[in-house]
Amino acid sequence: MTKRRQRGLERMTGQRNIVGERLYLARHRHTPPWTMQQLSDAVEEVTGLEVTVATIGKIEAGVRGAYDWEVAAFARALGVSTDWLLVMTDRLRFKVES
Asked: Residue 85 and residue 60: Cα distance in Å, rounded?
C-alpha cells in the first residue's frame, strides 16, 4: 500500500488496518474462542485457500492489511459479512451453515 493510500485510510477510519480488530472479535465470539490455528484451518476447509497463523497474527496486530480474497475467506469461515469485517456496518449477523 502506498503512503498516500495509507494516509487516506487512516483519515477515513483512524487506523491503518480496519479488518484486524473485527477479525479478532469474530474469532472470540466462539465458545471457546477460536485460536488463530482454528481460523486458519476453517478458512482452508471452507474455501480451500491457505492463510497461515503468522498472516492472521499480522493482520490482527495491524502490521499488514488483508487482501480482498482474505477478507472474503475470513467472512465465510467465521460466518460474518464482509461488510462487518470491513467496518461498513456495525450490524453483526452470524450465518448458520446447514
From this structure: 12
CB 18 within 8 A of CB 42: no
Q: Give the C-alpha separation, 63 to 59, whole Å.
A: 6
The pLDDT profile of the chain, 98 residues, written as one tens digit per residue, is 466 545 554 555 455 678 999 999 999 998 999 999 999 999 999 999 999 999 999 999 989 999 999 999 999 999 999 999 998 766 555 554 43
Rounded to 5°, angle at Cα 13 from 8 and 16: 65
Residue whose cell numbers read 479488518: 19
Q: What global pTM score does this model have?
A: 0.76
DSSP 16: S
Looking at 1-98, list the stretches that DSSP marks H as alpha helix, in order from N- to C-terminal side.
Answer: 3-13, 20-27, 36-47, 53-61, 68-78, 82-85
